[in-house]
Every structure is written in structure tokens, then in C-alpha cells.
Amino acid sequence: MGKILVVDDDEQMCEDISEMLSREGYTVSHVGSGEEALDRIKSEDFDVILTDLIMPGIDGMEVLRQSKRLKPAARVIMITGFGTIENAVEAMKEGASDYISKPFKINEVQATVKRALEEAKFSKCLSTSGAKSDRVQEMLSSLSNPIRRATIEYLFLQGRSSFMTILEELGVEDHTKLSFHLRKLKSFGMLEQDEKKKYALSAEGKRIAEALKNLKGYTL
Predict the structure, then answer these.
(1) CA 4 to chain CA mean position, Å
(2) pTM for this one?
(3) What CATH number is attached to the domain comprising 89?
(4) φ, ψ for residue 53 (rounded to 5)?
(5) Which of 122, 140, 162 is the endpoint of a domain?
(6) Please, how many CA atoms are within 13 Å of residue 34, restricted to the half-sphere of its CB?
């Protein structure tokens, strides 16, 4: 199912998240500091690392940076508190797969972990898909995140749509998170907006959607 490390200086929070995920069949370990987390990451392989953003000593950002250096295949999810969403978005710019905000719901934690595991699976699928141009490979790699990929799939099938329609159709509850991913897709030239601010696939986006559809081991 997946091996997960939970990192939080709040012991009760660690235990609660560990219980939530263990019930889903994941193998879960938890530690109470960034220092302990790095020791575990050096000696063990984890599929997903959930780490609190604000901790004494080594904080979540440093856990992210070091884990990407030590175990780049591991997906990192940031746990944020009130007023730290902006920091979580910065963490995503540095390579975090996602974030969850306190207080969170059980299904939110489960869905976020599932997306991170899907991201890892897609990246593995992409690495064995055969030769493509560097540009196509780079853009497909940017779609390892399920929210970005779902956006491309939705617009490929449905055409021009507003932000709120995409938000509702994809079932994303966090406006900030979707906005971040749409900006990333625009930066790659895959999306465009009209005068009414509606989103649509650009010519490049349509080409990438076709490449995604034909990706070995993946179905659009």
C-alpha cells in the first residue's frame, strides 16, 4: 500500500494521523522532530513523508530540502497551521507534492496521501515510457501531480471553463492550491485564458494531452 513517515512535534497529532492512515492499510511510522526525521530518512525508504511546517530546530522546510536530496523519490506533504498557507505554497515551489491545513478532516488526509502515491506511480510510468523529445518529457513530468493532470484531462474533454467550474468538477476544496497549479500549467504554456478569464488548453497543451493519452501504461 505504501510506507509513510509522519513528522510533528505534537505527539497527539502524530498519533492521530498515524491511526488515520494505518486504518487505510499503510505502514506508518512517526517521529517528533526534524532531527529524528532525517535520521529515519537516511536509513529507510518512505513513499510519503508528512511533515509539520513549523517545528523547533529543524523545521519542515529543511526536512523537505534534505529528503529531496537524500531520497528524491519520496513525496513530501506539508502540514500547515493557521496563517502558514503562504509558506506551504513556497514549499510546493521547492518540491513539496502537496499540503494539508490544520484542522483537517480524515478524508482530506487520506485523499492527499493517495494523490502523492499517484504522483509517484505516474513518475515511474513516465520513466519507462520510451523516448520522447526533451520538451515533451519535461512537460509530462510537470503533470505528475494529479491535480494538474486532472485539469489537463478535464479541459481536453470539456473545453473552455472558469476557475470555479474547474474547482467544482475536480473536487478541489482549496482555492489557493488549485490557483497554484493553474499558474504552473500556464508557466509551461499549456493553458491560456480569454478576456473573461476562462481557461482552455493552448495548442501546446493539446499536444501534451495527446501525448498523455498515448503514454504507455496510462489511460486518459
Answers:
(1) 15
(2) 0.82
(3) 3.40.50.2300
(4) -75, -45
(5) 122
(6) 17
- The string of pLDDT tens digits covering residues 100-113 is 988 888 888 999 99
Cα 26 to Cα 47, 48, 63, 113: the distances in Å are 10, 10, 21, 10
End-to-end CA distance of the chain: 23
Residue that terminates a domain, selected from 73, 99, 122: 122
- DSSP structure class, residue 58: S
Please give the pLDDT value at position 88: 85
* Contacts of 43 by beta carbon, 8 Å cutoff, 6+ apart: none
**What single DSSP character describes residue 6?**
E
CA distance 117 to 16: 20
HSE value, Cβ hemisphere, 13 Å, CA-based, for 127: 7
User: 103, exposed or middle or buried, with CB in 10 Å at 0-12, 13-18, 19+?
Assistant: exposed
Write the single-letter amino acid at 102. K
Q: What angle do CA 136, 155, 180 make, to 5 degrees?
A: 75
Quick check: is 219 in a domain? no
Domain span at residue 200 reads: 128-213
Which set of grid coordinates corresponds to residue 21? 492512515
pLDDT tens for residues 32-58?
Answer: 999 999 999 999 999 999 999 999 999
Contact 97, 77 (CB under 8 A): yes
Whether residue 86 is contained in a domain is answered as yes
Count CB neighbours of 33 within 10 A: 18
